[in-house]
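Note to self: user wants both folds in one dump. Writing first protein now.
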Amino acid sequence: MMKITIIASIFLVWMSEGFICRVTSRSRPPLFSQSEEPPALYIQVISDVDDTLKSSGGVNVAGVALGGIDVQYERGDFYPGVAEFMLELSRHRSDGSATATPPKVAILTARAEEFKVALELKETSKLSIAFRSAGEKLGIQNWGLGPVLYGSVAEWIVQDKKGLRKFSNFERLIQQDITGSIFQYIYVGDTGELDQEAGETMLREYPEVVRAVFLHVVSDEPNPIVPPPKLINGRPIIFFRTYVGAAARATQLQLMDKASLQRVIDAANQKLDEVPKSSDKWLDLDHDLQEAYRTKQINSK
């Protein structure tokens, strides 16, 4: 109950911000006065890859992580419900209406561009196919992973530079809509590779176009603590353990509806169908399922 109250408080503060733009050192002036009704903008999800879309397995070489730290899932495993979660965020425009042509997911990754031949996210990859399939189930063709902005060997070696590189790549991405009249963005990353630093910088510098940040809590130890949500410039940062938990928070923030939440629940359950119920994967999912069902009940009242 306390968790619901916290999220509800965030939602009220967040909604009170509306679409009023803040002017910062890097931001653009507002396109609409406070008295004008803003247009319904498309939502483009921006995502990291390793430990966000799929597990790194916690593999490292000479102490340097090869993508992340998550040891709960095997290297290369897709997280249950991840494609459906990002699809539902992409389907809902800024006014809550649904679009039949959701933007593809933009990728900000620390993977080195110098190794692109080996690490490139190709259209034929299992990950790309899984995302396209999620769209096709709803009758949406050619949805999936879109532009990919890579890191470099420098950030792979000097880990502390990864957050800055992802933020600078975000600034490159938003040049596609320099007026801010088409897109708003939701960033999804994880807690293992300075995605939090990148996400917080996005909210500090561009709160008028970044609606929320979601961070997947990963660890090289079992049962990591999930931090409470926080606000930066009136925009929420949500920490989550499963994509069902993330979808519950997104529903509370009116970033998707309860039917969308149910589709994420169904996909996650199906993904773990053959996993033993004694697994800690089910423990995490069952915990977040309780939150999801409470959210659906509240939204039905």
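First done. Writing the second protein, which came from a different request thread.
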Amino acid sequence: EMPKGGRMAAASARQPVLWRSAFRNSVWVALVLMITLSMCLVVLGEGDAAASVMDKDGDGKVSTEEFVEHAVEQQKDECCAADGSCKAQEEPDEAEPAKLRGSQEAQQQEAEQQADAEAEAALAQAQYLAAKEEIKKSMQGGVPIEMSSDNAAALLDGTYNLFLKFSTSWCGHCVKMAPDWKGLAKDVHKDYKGCLVVSVDCEKETQLCQAFSVQGYPTLILLRLAKTPEGETAYEPVKYEQARERGAMLGFLREKKAAKAKNWLLATLKSILASVFNIQVQMPK
């Protein structure tokens, strides 16, 4: 057994150790309390901030409506990315149905326009074919072809040379040359190829006469087929200013190579006989 003095000395030696241990424990407890207090302050601060954000009217209170509005905004923010692009959960764009209807209406309008254009093209083609058939009948009948706005495209399609006469019913010179003009049409349409004898009534077809710059009656113009530098078919206008007689007009067409005889010998004999007949008729009594 340790003597009494030794026990006292040992107890005295342990006292500093116990004091230091108690001090350390106190420090740790204080640190824990400070950390806990800081966390509480942070939580309380966030709560105040959240409350201030939800307080839309600034009265210091958060109503049910303000809380719901704030919750909806948070949900919307969660649906959208940082760059502003939203996911599929975002609210639908009210303008999309209007855009879709506008696109459908535009497509329908385009389809209707295309259908109208096709119908017009079909009508124009039908008129062209009908005009071609009438031209063919006039050629077979050996009569002048009456040009109008309806058959102008069929006549000016680059198939034939055209010998045009622009006239009116009240023009005395036009009336006088009418028999020679009809005789020329008979000769050309029956015995020649490559040329059409065409009449234009300037009382009915004023626009056609204006297009050819007609200033007097009768006006005779040969539209001779030619080629452009690009190789496209075109017409070369040649004004006729010779005698308005059947033989002279036929000779002009042959000279300009606008009309080619189907049978050269027969056409030449007819031309000679026609010239002689005209001379005998025009001889003074």
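Dump finished. Worth passing along: DSSP finds eight helices and seven strands in the chain.
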